[in-house]
Design brief:
The chain contains 13 helices and 20 strands. The chain is α+β, with helices and mostly antiparallel strands and 413 residues long.
Amino acid sequence: MGESLGTFDVAIVGGGPGGSTLASLLRGQGRSVCIVERDPFPRFRIGESLLPFSMDTFERIGVLDKIKAGGFQVKHGARFIVDETLEEECFWFRNGLDKEHPFAFQVQRAPFDKLLLDHAATLGAKVFQPSAATDFRAGPDHAVLTTNAGDIHAQVVADASGRWTFMSGRQKQRKIHPSHRKVTVFGHFRNVVRCEQDPGNIIIARFGDAKMGWFWLIPFADGNTSVGVVADSEYFRQSGATPDEFFRTSVLASRSIGPRMKDAELLRELHTEADFSYTSDRYVGERLIKVGDAGAFIDPVFSSGVFLSVKAAELAADAIASAFESSDFSEKPFLAYEEKIRQGTKVFWAFIDAFYNKDFLKQMVTSRRRQLLQKSITSLLAGDIYNDRNMLIAYLTGKDGAFADAELHSLMA
């Protein structure tokens, strides 16, 4: 047994947005909390475009004013382009089914994540950093989280370790999504032409059928822009190109992104990631709950990563409160949380499958002709994934990728 680092109500693995938000929420409940984060902050991450439905949670933990004062780029909507035809549509969050969530932010994750972690610390969360979790054991009286610096005793351990997937990896529960094996190459640039309607909006440009790919352009307040290309892994492999060559060739071939990158200058090296879409067999266990990317990560086309982590933190905080109220730290009080997480990720996966379907994509970029369809899409883009009034959610989650234009037209006429 290692040196004792203390006893807490809840020990959290990971100090990213999910972990720090959960810590802040639990401190609001009066719980003693620690965060074990293996990397020193600030550190680089992608996932730089936030969704409006995260703002309520940030306000709830008292950090929204700090975010507003942090100089981050305000985001009012998302612009989608079909690269081959240049058909496009801009979805303004103020025009969704819910009018109360009109904005979000584009953030460079290094300062943003540090802001959230520092906020949790000011609320009383104990931060062990840099410190890596190495083992977890659930016992009858408490759980033990072992780190490279010693042991932590807690009633509940929350795994918010991100794509490291601390517990899912140890339990061999992480499963790569078989039909979404993608490669992304990305970097930060200066002198990129931004969205003409609103320079703070994200641009998503879809290219090709067989290639199954798309670009993102995420503008920052300092004038720089995050630009990435995502493509089918097999298409990337068959190209025989290096990641740098693939990125530059893709940009040059793009009708929509090429002109915007004509004078762009790369600020640092390009980054590459592959096979980043996965899920876990289980999201909970005895004295254990997985939050955000520690349980699943989905195709980032709709910028859902930080939102799903923050929403999961909110749901996890409620589940943990129930466990303490009942003094039951089995998986039972966490099962409703697990079901809610599966429901939310199912909605986004259905929306993602629709995006990769040329028939639905056509409906997206011509949706201004059908107001209800545009409002419904806008609400999903804002993160309003638990809205029973949105008929598009029921339609997409029941289609299994088969989208009939006439049927959708009838539903959303």
